[in-house]
Amino acid sequence: MARPTGASKPTPDTAARRRRRKRLRATALVLATQVAILIAFLAFWDHMTSRNSAAAFMFGSPSAIGGFLLQMARDGSLWRDLYVTGSETLLGFFVGNLVGTVIGLSLWYSRFVSRVVEPFVIAIGSIPIIALAPIIIIWFGTGLISKVAMSTLSVVIVALVTSYKGALGVDPDQINLMRTLGASKFQIFRKLVVPASLTDIFAGLKLTVGFALIGAIVGEFMSSSEGLGHAIFKAGSLYVIPKVFAALVATIALALILTFIVGKIERLLMPWRRL
Amino acid sequence: MTEVGSGHKAGAANAVAGGAVVPPLVVEHVSKGYEVNGEIVPVIGDLSLTLREGEIISIVGPSGCGKTTLLNTLCGLLSPDSGRIRWHGREVTGQPQNVGYMLQKDLLLPWRTALGNAMLGLEIRGVAAAEAEDRSRAMLDQLGLHGFADHYPSTLSGGMRQRVALARTLVHEPDVLLLDEPFAALDFQSKLLIENDTASLVRQGRRSLLLITHDIEEAVSLADRVIVLSKRPTRIKAVYDIALGAERTDMIGLRQSPEFSHYVRRIWADLDVVLQ
Ligand SMILES: Nc1ncnc2c1ncn2[C@@H]1O[C@H](COP(=O)(O)OP(=O)(O)OP(=O)(O)O)[C@@H](O)[C@H]1O
Ligand SMILES: [Mg+2]
Questions:
Q1: Per residue in A84-98, pLDDT tens?
Q2: What is the domain count for chain A?
Q3: Distance from the Cα of residue B104 to its chain's centroid
Q4: Domain B2-105+178-186+194-275 belongs in CATH node 3.30.1640.10
Q5: pTM for the complete prediction?
Q6: Residue A60 maps to a domain
Q7: Closest Cα to residue A156, out of A208, A220, A228, A221?
Q8: Ligand 1 centroid – CA B227 distance (Å)
Q9: Do residues B56 and B204 touch, judged by C-beta distance below 8 A?
Q10: Cβ neighbours, 10 Å, residue B153
Q11: Which of B74, B75, B106, B109 has the most A C-beta neighbours within 10 Å, making it the best mutation to test the interface with A?
């Protein structure tokens, strides 16, 4: 073996381009298949409900759902609901993950504290948040704060557990190495434990997008005058099933957008994983 | 000790009253056991050794005899059950200063580039960023990694990663190196090259090296002394002064010499490996 000298970069430009094109084609194939499945599903749905009014009433139909979406977009309620639920979700997501992650990571610091706290975390984590909703509305009113609280609560334990798991998963040999280099506990935490936990933290972030949204919508179900949860609840109680589905479509879109943004941030923060 | 040992007195900064040199590491009657299911399992029996300035000692012993335990005890990651460990004449609590420690796993941080990994120790010690970077770059260059400073570990070969780990170990100029099978995972060629580089950097800088290895040929080719450990609870079973000279440039030729094979055979015999 020759000793490594100089960067080995001279990959021919064409080869790199060919590889990129190959990767693009693979992505396009995945996307095309997904779209095809979606279209087939919608076509089947539309076909089954187009000549059967009872079925159309029970299951809605893609065209009716589209119609409602268009109408909601035009009268502005779609944007307002998206904005309301979106901000509740984002706030809950942010606060819940911040608090959960900070606590989860700092539990690494003290075996004593983490052992004391563990049963409490499990106990709190096992409470179905929907059971808390009435109390939260009594405490925080029917406005934004109560939904953010619901959303935060459904996120915080998951964030805490995933980040703590991440911190505990750090290779003990790596910690020993840091110690032999003379690192203090805080230096080990900052230079090793926190970055090493990022993978788990982001797994938690992706998971909790959905939880934050569920929290906000459950909150809106309980009592609200706006938001996607409110729209679903109202349409449901009036038996306007296509409108329920229309609001659900908007909810799914919101979840997808938020997940996409988290993924982007992940790639930005962890450039070494792109290689 | 022969030529190597006697030549060092002049360069000693550690001379104490009486003119004697304080060895960088003295181990006296150290023992260590682990608690397993409420019982103490003795791992290190009663072990004493002295690492002199500028000396390279290889330690070989059967698998599981406690070599890693010994190394971790020496550098303060574990505390001995009894006995004394003196670094430059003093017993230290916690980690000794100026000791470089390296394992078979390179333990590079994946989110840091080669340069960032090499700089880790200097950064922890609070060396100014610009100086830390210059020194780390120079060390990487010296180890044949010129041009790879900005590569992430995931894009480097195993041999290159181990070189980065070696750079991280050497860059803050420790006067004692404790290496635990650092080259065991490498192919033969990379291994010879990196062994050679390590030995010459150690000799150049008048550092001392304690090298744990399973590779008897590696042990003999690098060391001034080879210590053979017994099975658990481990003690020193035999010590060999390796009289192959301190300037060993032709590693391949060295390995073919009759003296070399003689040492290897005797150490093999000591290790008592039963082949079925
Ligand atoms: N944390 C621990 N708790 C209990 N027993 C341990 C622990 N670490 C090591 N041991 C035991 O101590 C003995 C010595 O382990 P050690 O890792 O020091 O051996 P070694 O000589 O380095 O082995 P190898 O050559 O395979 O690397 C082994 O029998 C091992 O099972
Ligand atoms: Mg070992």
A1: 999 999 999 999 999
A2: 2
A3: 11
A4: no
A5: 0.82
A6: no
A7: A208
A8: 18
A9: no
A10: 22
A11: B109
